[in-house]
Amino acid sequence: MEGGRKEKVPWVAGVEDQLKQYGVDEAKAAEEAQWRKHSVYRVPAHIKKNGKQHAPDDSPYEPQLVSLGPFHHARVELRPMEEHKRRALLHLLRRTGASIRDLAAAVEAVVQRLEDAYMELDGRWRGGGGGRDRFLEVMVTDGCFLLEVMRTAAQEGELGDYAENDPVFSRHGELYVFPYVRRDMLMMENQLPLLVLQRLVAVVRGRDAAADDAINNMVLRFVSLTPDPPAISGGDLALHPIDVCHRSLLHGSPPSGVICKGRQDDFVPSATELEQAGVRFSRSATRSLHDIRFHRGVLYIPELAADDTTEHKLFSLMAYEQLHPGAGANEVTAYVFFMDNVIKSADDARLLSASGVVSNGLGSDEAVARMFNRLANNAVLDKQSPLRAVHGQVNDHRENAWNEWRAIFAKNHAGNPWAIISLVAAVFLLVLTVMQTIYTVLPYYDHHSAPAPPAKSRDHMCS
C-alpha cells in the first residue's frame, strides 16, 4: 500500500464480511446447527492408514459386497448387488401392494435432512440436473433392500415369495451373503440413515411399526455384536446402524460421576501379571461396556464374542466416536484401550477365555491378542473416562504385597490337597513344639523368679 493508498485485499474483505454476518452468539448457534446435521462421514486418510496396517488389502472402513448410500454407489466391485437390490424393491412392492410413488413421496418429504446427513456429499447428488432424483432412488432402493434382508433373516427359514434357490433371500443367502451385508452395514462411509427405513416402514406396515423403538430394535437384532441383545427403549430414532450398535453396547446407567474419587491411572498391567498379584477375572452380569468394575479383588469385564467380524465392527465404532461429536464419550475406544492393556499375549487371552470374559471364535489365543493390539494402535483414553478409576483400584490392589503373597500361596498349594494337608500338619506340629517348649521352660523361670524366704533375726538365733 504505497503512497498512503489503502486497497482492499480480497481475503481480508472476505473475513470482514463474515464478521458482519454474525455476532458471537449467532455464529455459535449457526455452527451448532450445522454440525448437528451430519452423521455419516468420509473417513480421513490418517484413520484409514491406521486401519489398513492390519490388512493392507482389506480396509475396515470400506464395503466389500454392497453399497448403501451415495459414497460408494456404483463402485465396480459392488455392482453385482445392484440387481438384487432392484429385485428386493420389486418383491416388497408386489407382496405388500404398496405404491412406488408413495414410497418415493415419503422419502422425498425428508430428502433435505437426508442429504445433510452426509458430510461432504458430492454436488452431483444434490439439486437440479437429476442429482436429487438419483439420490432419492438410492435412498428408496437401498432402504427396501435392507428391509427385505432383515425380514428374510427374521423369518427363520420361511422364504415366502422368494425362490428356495434364491442366491440372496434364502437360507443359502443367510449363511453366505448376510454376514457380509452385516459387516457392510457397519462401515462408517456406508451408512443409510434410519430415517429412510422409518419412512418406508410407515408406508408399508403402518405408523405403529415405524415407531422409533421398533425401527431401532429391528436393526439391532440384525447387526448386534452379541446374541440376544437387550432391547433399546425410551430413546429417539438412532442415526444409522452404527449408532444402533453403539447404543446397544452402552445400555444401562453409566457409572455415577464423570470422574470417581480416588486414584486415577491411565494403564494397568496384563492379565497374567494381575493374576500373580491376586486379581481374579469374571464375566460381568451384563454385556454393557458400562459394566467394567473392580470389587474385592475381582475384575469384572463384559463378555465379548470374538469372531471374524469383531475387528471390523470395533474399528467402525471407534471411527464413529472419533468423527461424530454427538456420539458422546469415547467409551468403545476406552474399552479397546483397556483390553489392549489387559491382553498383551496369548497367555493373557487364554486366561480371559477361561474366565468367560472372551468367547474365542478366532481359532487361537494369539489371534485375540493381535486383534486388540491392532485395534488399540493410536487409541487414547479420555482423561474423564470412568475406566481410569477402575485402573487405579486395580493398581492399588496389585501394589499391596500381601495380595501377591496370598496369590502365590494359592497358586502353589490350592490345587494340591496333599500339599495343603502337609502344610496344615506342619503348622500343627510347629504349634505343639512351641507349646511344649513353653511348658518346659516356664517352671524353670517360675522357680528362679520366686521370692527368697525371710532370714531369721540374730536375737532369735541366740535365744
UniProtKB/TrEMBL annotation:
Sequence intervals crossing the membrane: 418-442
The entry's keywords: Membrane, Transmembrane, Transmembrane helix
Do you know which Pfam families this protein is assigned to? DUF247
Q: Which domain of life is it from?
A: Eukaryota
Q: What protein does this entry describe?
A: Uncharacterized protein
Q: Where does this protein come from, organism-wise?
A: Zizania palustris
